[in-house]
Amino acid sequence: MRAIRRWMRLNTSWTGLRIIFAFVLLPALLATTPDRLRAEITNRIVAIVNSDIVTLHELNTSIKRITGLSAKELRARDEEDFYEVRRAVLDNLINDKLTRQQVMKLGIKVATGDIDEAIERVKRENNLTQEELIYSLKQEGITLEEYRERIKGEIERFQLVNYEVKSKIVITEEDVMNYYQEHSGEYMEIPQVRLARIFLEVRNPDDEEEIARVKSLGVEILDRLKEGDNFFTLARTYSQGPAASEGGDLGWIKVSQLERTLRKKIVGLSPGEYTNLELAPSGFQIIKLIEEKEGGIKPLERVRDAVYSKLFKEKVGKRYAGWLKRLRDESFIKIKF
Description:
Layout: H1 2-7, H2 34-42, E1 45-49, E2 52-55, H3 56-67, H4 71-77, H5 79-106, H6 112-125, H7 130-139, H8 144-164, H9 173-182, E3 188-189, E4 192-201, H10 208-226, H11 231-238, E5 249-254, H12 260-267, E6 278-280, E7 283-293, E8 296-297, H13 300-329, E9 333-335
Helix pairs in contact: 3-5, 4-5, 5-8, 6-8, 9-13
């Protein structure tokens, strides 16, 4: 799989083309025209999967879709990678045939409305109109009908996995607790502070009168804060720094990202308190600590859903791999290279 990951730039979940016809190479073909012979060689069978087949045309089409290169171009670049990618793509095509056969066996049906709903969701999530979707598909060489078939295949596989795998998975509270304790490092919370700032700019650092005037304004603002005036209102009125229109709210910042001197001053504050008037690059500032989040391991109550989701995905992956292996072991698969 190393090579296919390297080349893969598209969604690896695809539907193989339906087979319209397949040629059997016989000595008599030597008498046919070169063009006809090339077509027949291109469409020769490369794998038999129970009662289904994979053709060389399907294989090469999938290689092109996944890597962006034709099989010939890929082989010319790196022959070793070509064989590795080709085998991985063929394995996926075989798996696709097997899952389709299981979909047919279980009688899984996908309603037209389900396909429409899935496509509408794609459009909403990507802010696409119908015309923009069709244009995007055209750029990838896919018609809307082919895309609908692909979506149908995805829904079928989802329902198959849900029936064969997901419905049989049970995650207990003990499982959640054990995972949380064994992987506590994954749930560390980094100390953060939410700050607001009133910044008063000094445009000319060589102008002593301007410095004195700006500093005097800062002292006046600080006095008003001490008298009970609202920090955010004063920031909206006087601050010339970022987010002044939002009351100087700078949002959440990791404590480790603060400049060392400022960090020491902030650490000494309690939520709601603010610093004195401080000299800052290009001016003066007053900083308020709005909220803080202490570091440490997040409590289980806050991460329970995340732990459950991770455990579920891991079990789905393992069970699906096992189910697919059993399906392959029980099937007739012959590769004809």
